[in-house]
């Protein structure tokens, strides 16, 4: 398993169907109440190419729910596998009464984690080998952070911003100083950066767009901190054009290629070549590809809300009953030799 420690789930609620679509709960009750048994093979797939994620989480949950008397066999691909449309990614085999109430749960896990892992992988590929940082925590409910951070790790994100994001993969949250801290120092980025570095006795990445003058602010911080400044982060609002940028075209707004070049050139001219440039604010796959085509000199990129923009849905079907084909019209059993037994 990629997950570094044992996950905890609300097992009692899961077993009674609290998180499950009611028709599955009622189906189990009816089958159990009438003594009807059906040995089935459930087949799970999605209709898109994607980076599979949520398998380890699903397996951990099912193991705990099934318990020591488990009679269900689960086979699956692995987290991080590239999957094709309609490819079988998981099968569950056993008495349908034992399986029914978990369909809602594992489909939801796979859908969310795969979507994030896939979007992160797209950003990683678009970034051309430069680190992608997962800034997604503030864009969703805090209880999602652990699993979302793990999905980002599977997708290839180098770092995350909260300890919860990194809990399942063994990482710690990283970050720069926030705008609010600069405001607490009366808008003086240099003073805020120096105080932060001194308090933690460490190198820092300074946020340098508070005054919408990233070149001047970057140089002021670099002159003051020297080698204690490992990087600057440009986070200019897409509604603004930095004072160093000459153009007034739409693509001059926010963190533009020209702005990044201006900061890089200014730092290099004064000998601060070690200072890295981290970009953030409104980045997506398309903008990253353009930056790489234009050879914009950034060192890493932080992305947040875009990672949640696409969904990847999964479907589960009964395809065999008592070993014989039995599926709704349009669906049939698609064996996958790459599946490995993960629960038996």
What does this structure look like?
- There is one protein chain.
- The chain has 344 residues and is of the alpha/beta class.
- It has two domains: 11-115 and 312-343, nicotinate phosphoribosyltransferase, CATH 3.20.140.10; 119-308, TIM Barrel.
- It has twelve helices and 14 strands.
- The radius of gyration is 25 Å and the shape is elongated.
- The two termini are 16 Å apart.
- The mean pLDDT is 95.
- According to CATH, the homologous superfamily of the largest domain is Aldolase class I
Global shape: elongated
Largest sheet: 6 strands, antiparallel
| Total DSSP E strands | 14
Give the SSE map.
Blueprint (H helix, E strand, L loop, with lengths): L10 H6 L5 H13 L4 E8 L3 E2 L3 H12 L6 E4 L5 E2 L4 E8 H4 L3 H24 L5 E3 L10 H11 L3 E2 L2 H4 L12 H6 L4 H12 L3 E4 L6 H12 L3 E6 L22 H13 L6 E5 L4 H9 L6 E4 L10 E8 L2 E2 L14 E4 L1
Parallel strand pairs: 6-7, 6-11, 8-9, 9-10, 10-11
Antiparallel strand pairs: 1-5, 1-12, 2-4, 3-5, 3-14, 12-13
Helix pairs in contact: 5-6, 5-12, 9-10, 10-11
Features of the shown structure:
single chain; alpha/beta; nicotinate phosphoribosyltransferase; TIM Barrel; 6-stranded antiparallel sheet; elongated
Summarize the structure.
With 344 residues, the protein is an alpha/beta fold. It is built from 12 helices and 14 strands. Helix 6 (145-155) links the parallel strand 6 (132-134) and strand 7 (159-160).
């Amino acid at each position: 398993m990629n997950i570094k420690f044992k996950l905890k789930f609300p097992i009692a609620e899961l077993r009674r169907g609290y998180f499950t679509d009611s028709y599955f709960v009622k189906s189990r009750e009816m089958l159990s109440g009438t003594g009807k048994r059906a040995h089935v093979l459930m087949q799970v797939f999605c209709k898109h190419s994607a980076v599979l994620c949520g398998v380890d989480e699903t397996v951990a949950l099912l193991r705990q729910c099934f318990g020591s008397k488990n009679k269900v066999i689960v086979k699956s691909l692995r987290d991080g596998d590239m999957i094709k449309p309609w490819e079988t990614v998981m099968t569950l085999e056993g008495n349908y009464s034992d399986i029914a109430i978990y369909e809602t749960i594992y489909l939801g896990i796979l859908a969310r984690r795969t979507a994030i892992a896939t979007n992160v992988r797209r950003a990683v590929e678009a970034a051309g080998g430069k680190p992608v940082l997962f800034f997604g925590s503030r864009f969703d409910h805090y209880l999602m952070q652990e699993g979302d951070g793990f999905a980002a790790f599977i997708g290839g994100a180098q770092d995350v911003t909260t300890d919860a994001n990194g809990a399942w993969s063994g990482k710690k949250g990283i970050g720069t100083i926030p705008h609010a801290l600069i405001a607490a120092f009366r808008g003086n980025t240099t003073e805020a950066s120096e105080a932060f570095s001194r308090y933690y006795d460490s190198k820092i990445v300074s946020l340098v767009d508070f005054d919408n003058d990233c070149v001047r602010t970057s140089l002021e911080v670099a002159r003051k901190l020297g080698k204690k400044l490992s990087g600057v982060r440009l986070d200019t609002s897409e509604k603004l054009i930095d004072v160093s940028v000459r153009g007034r075209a739409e693509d001059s707004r926010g963190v533009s290629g020209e702005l990044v070049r201006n900061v890089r050139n200014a730092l290099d001219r004064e000998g601060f070549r070690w200072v890295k440039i981290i970009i953030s604010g409104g980045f997506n796959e398309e903008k990253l590809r353009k930056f790489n085509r234009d050879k914009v000199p950034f060192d890493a990129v932080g992305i947040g809300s875009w990672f949640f923009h696409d969904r990847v849905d999964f479907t589960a079907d009964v395809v065999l009953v008592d070993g014989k084909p039995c599926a709704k019209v349009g669906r049939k059993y698609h064996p996958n030799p790459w599946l490995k037994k993960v629960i038996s």
